[in-house]
Amino acid sequence: MAASTVSKDSEGIYTELASTKQDGYSTLGHTTLNSSRAQHTERLCKPCPEGWEQFSSKCYYFSTEGKSWMNSHRDCLRRGADLVIIESDEEQAFINKYMRDFNWIGLSDLETERIWLWVDGTLLQKNDWESGEPDNHYNLDSVKYSGADCAITYPGENVWLDVGCHLPIPFICETDALLL
Ligand SMILES: [Ca+2]
Ligand SMILES: [Ca+2]
From CA 108, how far away is CA 83, in angstroms rounded? Predict the structure, then answer.
């Protein structure tokens, strides 16, 4: 009889503990899961990071600071992006809406003169050069310099120029948007 009582008591205590634990885990589990889901959903609902603009399935960052083409390229890479690759009139029109002045784009003939490559290594096909450009020259303070291997754009049509890569100019980064 004594053994049976102990057994019942033990069982009773064990059951009670297990039930408390289950409730505790259950509550904790739901709370954690729900708040984690809420945060996840909030992040995914914004296709572009704070301070970036969306066009189609891409996000664009318009710098306010001027840097050399190479440092602009590095800056974009650090942001998980690269300098913008302009593939359509629609994309150029979108960029024009946000661009205030000259901006670097991801186009250069640094490797081989007159062979214009985008930063992803593709050869320039459709182009938007200003009349007479690219001419491997640029003007600065009314002086004409030779050696222009990096491309800039400004708002409008036929708006690309080749200028000296070292000039401190604002830039545009582009990366994929988070789309569901
Ligand atoms: Ca050149
Ligand atoms: Ca030029």
Answer: 11
